[in-house]
Amino acid sequence: MKLVLIAVPGSGKSTIMNLVKKRIPELKTVIFGDVMFEIAKKKFGIKNRDEMRKKIELKDYRKLQELAAERIGRLKGRVIIDTHASIKQPLGYYPGLPSRIIKKIRPDSIVLLDFDPKVVFKRRMFDLKLKKPERTSVGTVREPRSRDIESEEESELHQTVNRMFAVAAANEV
Q1: The listed CATH number (2.50.20.10, 3.40.50.300, 3.40.50.720, 3.30.300.30) that belongs to domain 2-170
Q2: CA-to-CA distance for 26 and 100, rounded, in angstroms?
Q3: Per-residue pLDDT tens digits for 60-80
Q4: Helix (H, G, I), strand (E, B), or coil: what is residue 127?
Q5: What is the mean pLDDT of residues 81-85?
Q6: pTM flag (> 0.90)
Q7: What angle do CA 124, 107, 158 make, to 5 degrees?
Q8: Domain boundaries in the chain?
């Protein structure tokens, strides 16, 4: 069984995934962006995940997505994949789960999480202040990130775009 978990950046997907993993230890958890990053480090010298959107040309970004999807698609057993339905780019939103990617991953389900934009904004601001990994109140580890900050309004728009892209992706499942 493969489940894709999607939400806007900084919303808490990884935290939720880690909490589920604590209850189901045999569950495999994969962060799509981490798989892309491992490939991008070798191919493009990228230093952190957040650079991928800014420093890699679209054709190369698409290829990275496909390579990551192929790797994830080969995983067996119970798997949760943490990813994004849409990726904010300088000129708009890029689909995180276009048809060619969904077909390679072959998920059984897609779960879209929506959050109050105020909560997402607060979490992202907290992420910026982190200098080293920190244990959360629920026992997960929060890592420092260099991420773009969206206003509450931008976060709500991003979630609206996610809903539309998630419906399109779900039609492929």
Answers
A1: 3.40.50.300
A2: 28
A3: 999 999 999 999 999 999 999
A4: helix
A5: 95
A6: no
A7: 30
A8: 2-170
**How many whole angstroms separate alpha carbon 14 and alpha carbon 10?**
9
**C-alpha triplet 152, 158, 164: angle, nearest 5°:** 145
Q: Which structure tokens are listed for 94?
A: 């890029």
Helix (H) or strand (E) holding 80: strand 79-83
For 17, the token pair is 């995934």
Q: What is the mean pLDDT of residues 8-15?
A: 87
How confident is the model at residue 10, as a pLDDT? Answer: 84
One-letter amino acid for residue 140 of the chain: T
Grouping H, G, I as helix, E, B as strand and the rest as coil, residue 126 is: helix
Q: Which two tokens stand for residue 145?
A: 């990130």
- Whether residue 138 is predicted with pLDDT greater than 70 in this model: the reply is no
Q: Return phi, psi of residue 92, to 5°.
A: 145, -150
Q: Is 40 exposed, middle or buried (0-12, 13-18, 19+ CB in 10 A)?
A: buried
Contact 86, 35 (CB under 8 A): no
